[in-house]
């Protein structure tokens, strides 16, 4: 197999999945790379995206053990055309449960041929100074392992004649997938005393839930609680202080403190 062209396809509101996918790509070291970022609402998802190349790296965050619905709906417009793919999920140091299996099946349905899979850890979206969960991850060690994973993919890919010669990975998970957790009506709160209306939160929202006219207003029916707006706020005016979310964050900070390492399937 050749490794001249590489497609990076990902959904990454807080940009941690993007970091892992790019590190894997560095290890693969193709001659040319194209990026399809499914994160933002201005992506032309109404048009089919042909993503044929020598190899693709497909990345997604894990939300409560599943893939985010916004990502899966946008990915439905992506066409693999028989492209071999490396699939990667990124989770907040608790568990990725059915997400990697779900991404595997989603990729197959889109016409990709999965040849490797991995689960990496990143700072949990609900993490805060009060409730730290995998803060600062992916760190240097995580990125080093992501690059090493990419290097292994490169070696195995170049050693075979065609994608079918590589056994498909068998990621863990269960089907039917676990029921998706719904937190309808919960959005980040805004401290109006701290908010300067700098608008930094508006462009990072993957669903355009934050008003262009007033960034202190968030549409509850559009918010997916990815916390990208919180992570991007320079004055820490945006916080997730809903009792239910705080309860989850506190549980995670107490019970998910042991460092988990990447899991590789190749």
Distance between the termini: 16 Å
Reading side by side through the largest sheet, how are the strands ordered?
A: 2-1-4-6-7-10
Report the biggest beta sheet as strand number plus sense, adding barrel if it closes: 6 strands, mixed
Low-confidence stretches: none
Measured by DSSP, the beta-strand proportion falls in: 15-25%
Structural class call reads: alpha/beta
Tell me, briefly, the overall form: globular
Short description:
The chain is an alpha/beta fold and 266 residues long. The protein is built from seven helices and ten strands.
Characterise this structure.
There is one protein chain. The protein is of the alpha/beta class and 266 residues long. 27% of the residues lie in helices and 18% in strands. The protein contains seven helices and ten strands. The strands form three sheets. A six-stranded mixed beta sheet has the order 2-1-4-6-7-10, with helices on both faces. Strands 3-5 form a two-stranded parallel ribbon.
Keywords summarizing the entry:
single chain, alpha/beta
Compile the SSE list and pairings.
Blueprint: E1 5-10, H1 16-28, E2 32-37, E3 49-50, E4 55-61, H2 69-75, E5 78-79, E6 84-91, H3 99-109, E7 113-121, H4 140-158, E8 189-190, H5 201-204, H6 228-232, E9 238-239, H7 243-255, E10 263-265
Parallel strand pairs: 1-2, 1-4, 3-5, 4-6, 6-7
Antiparallel strand pairs: 7-10, 8-9
């Amino acid at each position: 197999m050749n490794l001249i062209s590489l497609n990076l396809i990902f959904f990454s509101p807080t940009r941690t999945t993007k970091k892992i996918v790019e590190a894997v790509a560095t290890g693969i070291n193709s001659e040319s790379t194209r990026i399809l970022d499914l994160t933002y609402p201005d992506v032309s998802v109404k048009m089919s995206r042909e993503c044929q190349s020598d190899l693709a790296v497909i990345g997604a965050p894990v939300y409560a053990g599943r893939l985010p619905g916004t990502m899966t709906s946008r990915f439905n417009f992506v066409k693999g055309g028989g492209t071999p793919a490396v699939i990667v999920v990124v989770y907040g140091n608790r568990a990725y449960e059915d997400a990697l299996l779900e991404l595997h099946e989603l990729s197959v349905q889109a016409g990709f041929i999965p040849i490797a899979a991995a689960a990496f850890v990143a700072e949990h979206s609900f993490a805060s100074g009060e409730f730290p969960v995998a803060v600062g991850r992916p760190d240097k060690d995580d990125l080093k392992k992501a690059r090493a994973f990419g290097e292994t993919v490169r070696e195995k890919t170049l050693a075979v004649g065609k994608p079918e010669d590589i056994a498909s990975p068998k990621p863990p998970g269960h089907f039917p997938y676990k029921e998706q957790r719904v937190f309808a009506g919960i959005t980040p709160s805004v401290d109006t005393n701290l908010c300067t209306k700098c608008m930094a939160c508006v462009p990072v929202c993957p669903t355009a839930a934050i008003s262009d006219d007033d960034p202190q207003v968030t549409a509850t029916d559009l918010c997916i609680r990815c916390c990208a707006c919180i992570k991007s706020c320079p004055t820490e005016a945006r916080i997730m202080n809903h009792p239910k979310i705080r309860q989850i964050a506190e549980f995670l900070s107490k019970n998910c403190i042991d460092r988990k390492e990447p899991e590789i399937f190749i």
